[in-house]
Specification:
Radius of gyration: 26 Å
Number of helices: 12
Number of domains: 2
Strand content: under 5%
Distance between the termini: 37 Å
Order of helices and strands: HHHHHHHEEHHHHH
């Protein structure tokens, strides 16, 4: 989907082409309609609130019908039918040549795919399968469909949800625990970090070989992969966890952060660089806190830590500057 600046440029160019006699009036009107832009505004908020309300009412009606029949099988069929219809409708909207439904079509396709996956889970549950087995069956069916449709329709929303669901399936969860406490958990970080590293690799491959055909898909793979990679290594490197391998994980985590900075410098990738620098600082502060918090006064602790981070940032700055000069010279 073109940005507002791109649409403004294309509209001005279309007007110039019409004035120069390069295109006809009908072509000019078609181009202006396709690349028109409107502010979201209060009317847009009300429209989407109405759409959401209508969807909730429709789902409630379907749920009421399934409840009256007393059959989970009927509920699964209704959910799957709605999901199929929504996905098909969203793909049809995405084919609009004037791109009038570029955002709403992606949302409808995403909703349809997840309803299809939910219908598989409900159906498996009605057959007496355990909750875990039903979820595995739903993900086994739903995730390939989600990835396929995401790439077919270039749906970045669907891809993001599919990648997050994949990591949730591997073994992660998050949620609010109350009192503004947000919990993030990884069931097995030793399994999670290689999977996350593979996702980052997929993102780098997209950026180097598939861009711009796949749009910003590379950012989805890289961002989600980097979050789980660094969080898993941070969990494994905790010195307070009683793990005899903690020091080895600290070293590995530190090297991983430095590696992200170096790779980002080679690729000129600000996203990877941001994650590398951020988690390297988190790593340094975490180690500093674990080792010296109890043995220092608060003032001394903060002063020494601040001075150390300042010196580190200076060294990192000069390294990046030197690397940039070397690259320009070559």
């Amino acid at each position: 989907m073109a940005s507002r600046q791109t649409k403004e440029f294309l509209q001005s160019e279309a007007a110039a082409w019409l004035a120069d006699g390069i295109i006809e009036k009908t072509t000019h009107d078609t181009l202006c309609e396709r690349y028109s832009f409107t502010e979201f505004g209060f009317a847009g908020i009300l429209r989407y609130i109405g759409i959401i309300g209508g969807l909730l009412a429709f789902f409630g009606l379907v749920g009421a019908i399934a409840a009256m029949t007393g059959s989970a099988f009927v509920g699964a069929l209704a959910t799957g039918g709605i999901g199929y219809a929504a996905a098909k409708w969203g793909l049809r909207l995405a084919d609009d040549l004037q791109e009038r439904y570029s955002t709403s079509s992606k949302i409808v396709v995403t909703l349809g795919v997840y309803l299809l996956g939910a219908s598989v889970g409900i159906l498996c549950g009605s057959m007496g399968m355990s909750a875990e087995a039903a979820m595995n069956a739903a993900l086994t069916v739903g995730l390939p469909i989600a990835f396929y449709l995401a790439y077919q329709s270039r749906n970045i929303y669907l891809l993001l949800l599919a990648v997050l669901t994949l990591f949730h399936w591997i073994g992660s969860w998050d949620g609010m625990l109350g009192r503004s406490t947000y919990a993030f958990s990884v069931q097995d970080p030793r399994l999670m970090w290689p999977a996350a590293l593979a996702a980052v690799g997929v993102g780098v491959y997209h950026e180097l070989n598939l861009y711009p055909e796949t749009g910003r898909f590379y950012k989805v793979w890289q961002a989600v992969g980097l979050i789980y990679l660094n969080m898993s290594l941070l969990i494994l490197s905790s010195l307070s966890g009683g793990d005899g391998m903690a020091l080895a994980w600290v070293s590995f985590f530190t090297l991983a952060c430095i590696g992200q900075i170096v790779v980002a410098d080679r690729l000129q990738n600000g996203l990877i660089r941001g994650f590398g620098v951020t988690f390297l600082c988190i790593n340094i502060f975490t180690r500093y806190h674990e080792l010296f918090w109890k043995s220092m006064q608060v003032g001394t602790f903060l002063l020494a830590g601040g001075a150390g981070l300042l010196a580190f940032s200076g060294l990192l700055y000069y390294y990046l500057k030197y690397a940039s000069v070397e690259r320009s010279a070559s």
